[in-house]
Amino acid sequence: MVKWMVEHPLGPEACASLKDQEMFNDLLYDAAKAGNVELVDYLFDLGCDDGYAHALLNAVKGGHVECMKRLLERCSSCMYLDRETIEKVVVEAAENGHLEILQFFRVQDAPLIHPCTSRETSPNIEPTNIWWSRAASAFDAAAGSGRLDVLKWLHANRYLGCSTNAMDHAAGNGHLTVVQWLHTNVKASCTKRAMDDAATNGHLNVVKWLHANTDVGCTQRAMDNAARYGRLKELQWLHANQSEGCTFRAFDSAISYGHLRVAYWLRSNLPYRPPPDNQPRFRSQNQFDVLLFLQGNCPDISTTEFAQETKYDFSGDSARPGDFLIEEWLDEMYPQAASEGE
């Protein structure tokens, strides 16, 4: 289709317009993203090479090895790659589990720079080993996405260490096998964020393992976020096994997002901490159930002022079908709020 459009009698005029608007670059990005080597070649032959770096990243991210190689072959007509792009290439390959691409870069012998560009004129150009100067970032990225095969290969071939992000991200994303491997094989450490994020995302098995095998612990954010996302099991376990506790945000978030089982458990088992302004924000579909819960369990919140503010939240452009019924119920239960609002 692209070739037909370009070779049409009106093609040259259209191409000039496209190039002015940088739309040719978008075509190159999409061709690389789809791994379409033929289209990549065709676009390069038309002089479309300004978007080379972005196209290379798209090919790597999609695991399109042949397309990536072709882009690298055509590099002699392009500007050199900057440090940020080179780092992203390796990190994208690691994060997306494309081991073949990592192996390809491992054996590269020549720097990928413009032949007319020297270090004196362009200090950002780098020798070949710049592909691996950010191997630690690649290691962290592979850990966060659970790519154990990539981690093992990097560890055996190009291990330059890792940061706490490796275990933190692996734990937060629920990759317990990766967390265990990092702990055993590279003596990786983590921060409190590991348990915080694992609890937030509902990975109780990871939370338990971190508790048993590390002494880092968590912050109040663990229980606060577990409540926000309705993670009752995680919340109960943290309460029984960790001493950090939670803040008022736990109950406030549970109410705001309609997690009534969590809200009831918090109300029954922990010191009551209402939101500072005594006005929960309703973000769930079960808003009427939440109102009934508050009326029965939180009389200090269910006040005339609360009714007025809630009616305001349920009116205007954001009102949904049926919200008028809630307004009528509030008027009936809080007549003073109804009269003051008139």
What this model shows, in words?
The protein is an all-alpha fold. Among the domains are: 163-245, Serine Threonine Protein Phosphatase 5, Tetratricopeptide repeat (Alpha Horseshoe), CATH 1.25.40.20; 247-342. Helices cover 62% and strands 0% of the residues. It has 22 helices and no strands. It is flat, with a radius of gyration of 28 Å. Residues 109-128 have low confidence and may be disordered. It holds the Pfam family Ank_2.
Quick structural summary:
InterPro entries: Ankyrin_rpt, Ankyrin_rpt-contain_sf, SecEffector_AnkRepeat. Helices cover 62% and strands 0% of the residues.
Shape: flat
Order of helices and strands: HHHHHHHHHHHHHHHHHHHHHH
Largest sheet: number of strands, sense, barrel closure: none
Instruction: Look at the helices and sheets and give the structural class.
Output: mainly alpha
| Span of the ends, CA to CA | 64 Å
Number of helices: 22
Unreliable stretches covering 5 or more consecutive residues: 109-128
Radius of gyration: 28 Å
Strand content: under 5%
Pfam family, one: Ank_2
InterPro entries: Ankyrin_rpt (IPR002110), Ankyrin_rpt-contain_sf (IPR036770), SecEffector_AnkRepeat (IPR052050)
Q: Which secondary structure elements does this structure contain, and how are they paired or packed?
A:
Elements: H1 2-7, H2 11-20, H3 23-34, H4 37-45, H5 52-61, H6 65-73, H7 83-95, H8 99-106, H9 135-144, H10 148-157, H11 165-172, H12 176-185, H13 192-200, H14 204-213, H15 220-228, H16 232-241, H17 248-256, H18 260-269, H19 287-297, H20 304-313, H21 323-333, H22 335-341
Helix pairs in contact: 3-4, 3-5, 5-6, 5-7, 7-9, 9-10, 9-11, 11-12, 11-13, 13-14, 13-15, 15-16, 15-17, 17-18, 20-21, 20-22, 21-22
InterPro entries: Ankyrin_rpt, Ankyrin_rpt-contain_sf, SecEffector_AnkRepeat
